[in-house]
Amino acid sequence: MIPIYEKRGGVTVRSARPEDTEAVVAIRNHAVAHSTALWTSVPHTPAEGRAWFADHLDRGSALVAEVDGEIAGYAAYAPWRALEGYRNTVEDSVYVRDGHHGLGIGGALLTALIARARETGQHSMIAAIESGNATSIRLHERRGFEHVGTLKEAGTKFGRWFDLTLMQLRLAPPAA
Is there a contact between 25 and 46 (Cβ–Cβ < 8 Å)? Predict the structure, then answer.
């Protein structure tokens, strides 16, 4: 049985709700503006943010972390690719609000997200991480993800090219 939420050292992880949308979109848009975690410079408008997050809510694939009653991070998974052959492979996203890093929030979110994906019958989870993001790579390694490849100069942001590290976690036992 997978817990609906998890509490760790002042961090509560729970299923996301519609009223979390504004806080989650603000965290995402901050990452767009200030990091290389998302390779876009275009933030979501409020309407785009609501539509994007509604997809996750409909799938049941979004979690939030609360610290002292405030949203301090979110995690979600989405289909890795659109073709039906990939229907049981998802890609994770984990983001922590600025000023809340190093508190175990990302780890609590990813652990709960993996459990949620297993509970919903997903077979494999992919992490696509900017190769210089050692913190995210370590976070995923600690939860059993394996490095499966690196795409050289796969994307650009802030006038620079970035490599993309691909990591994978099998959520179900290997097929016989």
Answer: yes
Q: Report d(CA 34, CA 39) in Å as an integer.
A: 11
The DSSP annotation for 116-161 comes to HHHHTT--EEEEEEETT-HHHHHHHHTTT-EEEEEEEEEEEETTEE
Tokens 């919903």 belong to residue: 120
Q: Which residues contact 108 (CB under 8 A, 6 or more apart)?
A: 6, 8, 11, 13, 65
Q: Which two tokens stand for residue 91?
A: 């890609």
Question: How many CB atoms sit inside 10 A of residue 60's CB?
Answer: 13
Q: What CA–CA distance (Å, rounded) separates 145 from 170?
A: 8
pLDDT of residue 173: 74
List, for residues 45-77, the tens digit of each pLDDT value: 999 999 999 999 999 999 999 999 999 999 999
How much is the average pLDDT of 4-29? Answer: 85
Residue whose pair of structure tokens reads 């490599």 in the numeric block: 163
Contact 71/14 with Cβ under 8 angstroms? no
How is residue 85 annotated by DSSP?
G
67, 83 contact by CB (below 8 A): no
How far is 101 from 97, CA to CA, in rounded Å? 7
Cα separation, 128 vs 149, whole angstroms: 10
8 Å CB contact between 132 and 162: yes
Residue 42 CA to residue 81 CA, distance in Å, equals 22
